[in-house]
Amino acid sequence: MPANAAPAPIRSLSPLNPLDHLRLLWWFFMRPSRIEAYRTLSGAESLAKTGAWLSSTLLWIPLLIIMAAIGAGTLPRATREIPLWLALAGIVLGWALTGLLAEREDNLSAGWHAAFGEVFSTAFVLAFGVAFGVAFGFGLISGLDIGKVVIFKQQFSPAGILMLVAAFSIAYGLAYVIADGISFGGLFIFAPVLAFMAAFVGILGIQFVGVFFSIFLTLFGFAFVGSFITTMLAASTVVRLIERTPGSWLEILFRVGGFFLIISAYLFLIWLCLLRGWRLV
Questions:
Q1: N or C, fewer C-beta in 10 Å, the chain?
Q2: Residue 4 pLDDT > 70, yes or no?
Q3: Which residues contact 83 (CB under 8 A, 6 or more apart)?
Q4: C-beta separation of 64 from 31 below 8 A
Q5: Which domain, by its residues, includes 220?
Q6: Distance between start and end Cα atoms, the chain
Q7: Looking at the domain assignment, is residue 196 inside a domain?
Q8: Residue 1: predicted pLDDT
Q9: Phi-psi bin for 80: left (phi > 0), alpha (psi -120 to 50), beta?
Q10: What domain count does the chain have?
Q11: What's the alpha-carbon Rg for the chain, to the nearest Å?
Q12: Can you state the angle between helices 32-42 and 18-30, rounded to 10 degrees?
């Protein structure tokens, strides 16, 4: 190839292709340079749209696992039953609403990072995602328990509930970091809550949605303060070290660890909820 020849464009990503979602997820953790090359050679629009739907999928997988477990009867039910098809229909609707909201958002990542710096913005997004997951997890558990759908408090030990919420918070924290690096938008940060309430108000009732939202707002404040302090200190230290030596073993370890951590969070939720692992906790 001649020295002055333009590099060949990377095959275009499509938000409708699940394999492109997996490819983009792999790029983010294992080959971040491919994302920048794609922006340069193929444009940012298809990258942002595919990233929006990928982020929506990552955020809804924990809810998909729990609602599928409720519909399949692998979580301890109370007096109220929810058919599996109805639970899955609510998940699909919520996922679609989140993706549509995220797809129509402007990518704020570049301006956000430029204004606040790489260290602060990355640590802040991670802290936000962890706090979001903690509040969402506890709000969901409390709402389902009060709505007599699942008897968490009677059947789950405190350790089991904490593990469930921890898996939620890890999945959400990393999903928001991925969204921030690819297609972060202002409305997208609250899109899952808005979509969840819209999708499940008819399935679980207005009482459940009211309980969930009030607990989410209350716990989000406490969880955000706690997670922000701890996550900010840890993440800012790691990001500073990575910035000083890009491509170092620390960056590789951090990215590989993040990839396996989010996969492990999903697998743990499958074991805990769908495979009845809660009986052993």
A1: N
A2: no
A3: 71
A4: no
A5: 46-279
A6: 60
A7: yes
A8: 44
A9: beta
A10: 1
A11: 20
A12: 120
Phi, psi angle pair for 184, to nearest 5°:
-70, 130
Task: Answer yes or no: is 142 within a domain.
Answer: yes
Q: What pairs with residue 77 in β-bridges?
A: 150
DSSP codes, the chain: --TTSPPPPPPPP-TT-HHHHHHHHHHHHH-HHHHHHHHHHH-SHHHHHHHHHHHHHHHHHHHHHHHHHHHHT-S-B-S----HHHHHHHHHHHHHHHHHHHHTS---HHHHHHHH-HHHHHHHHHHHHHHHHHHHHHHHHHHHHHTTSB-HHHHS-HHHHHHHHHHHHHHHHHHHHHHHHHT--TGGGTHHHHHHHHHHHHHHHHHHHHHHHHHHHHHHHHHHHHHHHHHHHHHHHHHHHHHHSTTSHHHHHHHHHHHHHHHHHHHHHIIIIIS-GGGT-
Q: How far is CA 113 from the centre of its chain?
A: 20
Asked if 93 and 199 touch (Cβ cutoff 8 Å), the reply is: yes
CB-based contact 127:227 (threshold 8 Å): yes
Asked whether residue 109 is domain-assigned, the answer is yes
Using alpha carbons, list the distances in angstroms from residue 52 to 13, 56, 125, 187, 278.
Answer: 12, 6, 16, 12, 32
Give the integer Cα–Cα distance in Å for 102 and 104: 5
As given in the structure block, the two tokens for residue 113 are 């990072």
Amino acid of residue 60: W
Dihedral sign computed on CA atoms, order 152, 191, 59, 242: negative
Domain presence at residue 28: no
| Per-residue confidence band for 58, with pLDDT thresholds at 50, 70 and 90 | very high
Which residues are bridge partners to 267 per DSSP? none
Rounded to 10°, the helix 191-244/118-146 angle is: 150
The pTM score is 0.84
Give one word for 7, left, alpha or beta, with left for phi > 0 and alpha for psi -120 to 50: beta
